[in-house]
Specification:
The chain is an all-alpha fold. The chain has a single domain (15-467), classed as Orthogonal Bundle (Hydantoin permease), CATH 1.10.4160. The protein has helices at residues 15-26, 29-41, 45-73, 77-87, 95-127, 136-147, 150-170, 176-200, 204-212, 224-240, 246-251, 260-288, 299-310, 314-347, 352-373, 391-419, 422-429, 435-459, and strands at residues 381-383, 386-388. A two-stranded antiparallel ribbon has the order 1-2. A hairpin with a 2-residue loop joins strand 1 and strand 2 (386-388). The longest helix has 34 residues, at 314-347. The structure holds phenylalanine. Phenylalanine (PHE) is lined by residues 25-26, 28-31, 108, 238-239, 241, 244, 246, 332, 335-336.
């Protein structure tokens, strides 16, 4: 059956507009803040290797499936799932998948915004020259001062939520294209400059081998599934913005004739390169200045300022870097709100402005939990072989990226490859029925679900593939 719906929320002007917006969603704090610190906590090379495998084998096929569903349904993820399920003669309970995504979006944005707030604060700190000639002790002290002050964190968090609400209220399609077109390449170039600095440090090679050569001895006391595979899988979902409807809603604005495959590979390559560059820039600094790779969520805020304090024009490059990182976070933040806002517009008859404001208030309130996780409410626990020190923030983060997103992705894969008729996916992907289509279908039918399930079951101890 040929389906030709249009979205009441509009459409991207071209395939490139979609690629830019989706890259804007994918590239963000996940690449530059989360990827390096998780790599450091989870022992380096082995984690990176598994992460890359997850992106390729699980992430890309699921991303294609999610875009395909979005474009076919052309509504908020909740209504898209309901419409498609009805059309395919399936249970309307599939809309719960959309709901899980909306909830995950609220939780992720609630803490994402607090971290984006650190970035805001670092624009000013770097710009004021606070890091000139700073050593590790000083950058560590400045970071600790910031996170121990809930009032400051709340202020920056509020500003970031407001920034995101304003864009979503205007409609994510206006202006986003232009911003991403200029700012993403600029961020990329600045990362290259940082890599240049990293090359000048004594321990460049040590940093590189830490990142790319798995250290099997360090794995001896780890549980491979819960300590390496699960966090790597979660990071793949988080970084590609999949499993919660963000890419689905962006896909719902994609013109019918645009290639989903080409778009996905472009987005995934851009996303992965930014993460790897961030790692290459950061680990040499970590080792050269005697810092701990497992330093936790403060890692980039403690390491990069040392570099900015040393390099020529560091004050300028440093504030520019945090400005660009803020933009990268901004273009991700708006995509976290979009699924909820479109649902409110469709089902509650709200204007976009009201819907965005309501969603903003919910995330802002929830964000207070994260603000306090770094100070008054801080508590520690052990997870994935490392100590997590920031209580509820860590729990939010683990719950969403390691559980909700992979579960959402698993259900997307099951829906697209096991529930929908083959003819619907053939039609929507537009690859014909040849090898490329069969490869995708095999990946979403078997590889991606098996990957997620095997990791889930082993990590929770329900299954023991490599029990010793
Ligand atoms: N991918 C974004 C990042 O890496 C975060 C994000 C996750 C955005 C999930 C949307 C959905 O920063």
């Amino acid at each position: 059956m040929s389906v030709n719906r249009t979205s009441i929320h509009g459409q991207w002007s071209s395939r490139w507009a979609f690629i830019l917006a989706a890259t804007g969603s994918a590239v963000g704090l996940g690449n530059i803040w989360r990827f390096p610190y998780l790599t450091g906590e989870n022992g380096g090379g082995a984690f990176v290797l598994v992460y890359l495998a997850c992106v390729l084998l699980v992430g890309i096929p699921i991303m294609m499936a999610e875009i395909l569903l979005g474009r076919r349904g052309r509504q908020s993820p909740i209504n898209t799932m309901e419409t498609l399920a009805e059309e395919e003669g399936l249970s309307r309970h599939w809309h719960l998948l959309g709901w899980m995504g909306v909830i995950a979006g609220f939780i992720i944005l609630s803490y994402y915004s607090v971290i984006a707030g650190w970035t805001l604060s670092y624009i000013l700190k770097t710009g004021s020259g606070a890091f000139i000639d700073a050593d590790a002790a000083l950058t560590q002290g400045i970071f600790t001062d910031l996170i121990s002050d809930p009032k400051k964190l709340l202020l920056w968090h509020s500003i970031f939520i407001l920034m995101s609400v304003v864009i979503v209220a205007r409609g994510v399609k206006n202006g986003l294209e232009q911003a991403v077109k200029i700012l993403m390449p600029a961020l990329f170039i600045l990362l290259l400059i940082m890599v240049g600095y990293a090359m000048s440090t004594e321990k460049f090679l040590e940093g590189i081998s830490y990142l790319f050569i798995p250290d099997f001895d360090a794995l001896a006391d780890k549980n491979l599934f819960s300590d390496i595979f699960l966090p790597a899988l979660g990071q793949a979902f988080f970084s590609l913005s999949i499993g919660m409807g963000a890419i689905m809603i962006y896909g719902s604005y994609l013109p019918k004739e645009s290639s989903i495959t080409f778009s996905c590979f472009t987005i995934a390559i851009a996303d992965t390169s930014v993460a790897l560059l961030a790692g290459i820039a950061i680990f040499p600094i970590v080792f050269s200045y005697g810092l701990e790779p497992a330093g936790g969520p403060g890692l980039i805020f403690i390491t990069l300022p040392i570099a900015f304090g040393q390099m020529p024009f560091g004050t300028f490059f440093g504030s520019l870097f945090f400005i660009l990182l803020l933009f990268a976070a901004w273009t991700s933040g708006i995509s976290l709100l979009e699924p909820a806002v479109t649902w409110l517009v469709e089902n509650k008859n709200m204007s976009r402005v009201k819907a965005a404001a309501l969603a903003g208030v919910i995330t802002w309130l929830l964000g207070i939990v994260t603000v306090l996780s770094f100070n008054d409410w801080a508590f520690s626990f052990s997870f994935a072989g490392s100590i997590k020190e920031n209580g509820l923030f860590d729990i939010f983060d683990i719950l969403t990226s390691n559980i909700m997103l992979p579960l959402g992705g698993l259900l997307v894969a099951i829906f697209a490859a096991w529930q929908m008729s083959e003819s619907s996916t053939v039609e929507e992907l537009g690859l014909g029925e040849g090898r490329a289509y069969q490869a995708w279908r095999f990946a979403v039918r078997y590889i991606a679900p098996a990957g997620v399930l095997i990791i889930f079951l082993n990590a929770t101890g329900l299954l023991n593939v490599f029990s010793s």
